Amino acid sequence: QARLEESGGGLVHTGTSLRLTCTLSGFTFNSHVVGWFRQSPGKEREFVAAISQNGANPDYADPVRGRFTISRDDAKNTVDLQMNSLKTEDTAVYYCAADTSLYYVSSASRYPSKYGYWGRGTQVTVSS
Description:
Strand content: over 45%
Number of helices: 0
Oligomer: single chain
Largest sheet: 7 strands, mixed
């Protein structure tokens, strides 16, 4: 059974960094897109970043481009999200997601509805 688990969240101050890790198990995600999303209270889940197989074609939401970096290690079945220069508006629960129908990053991979497998999320809180 497919399983995704996020780790690495926490409470940090503005301007600092965190590294989130998504560990995937249960089936082979190597050929599929893995995405990161986030959700704040009262807001819809929003796209953060996505990465294709072999680490190709990373895609980022405008609010995080230049500050966040997504990477994957298929040998370890992990996808990381390095978050630098954190802002208070980055505070959210962060989720990783995957789906066997997504092979390459595209406009479709920005939509939560395209993903069938989700982790339970990890809280990131950025205080000023």
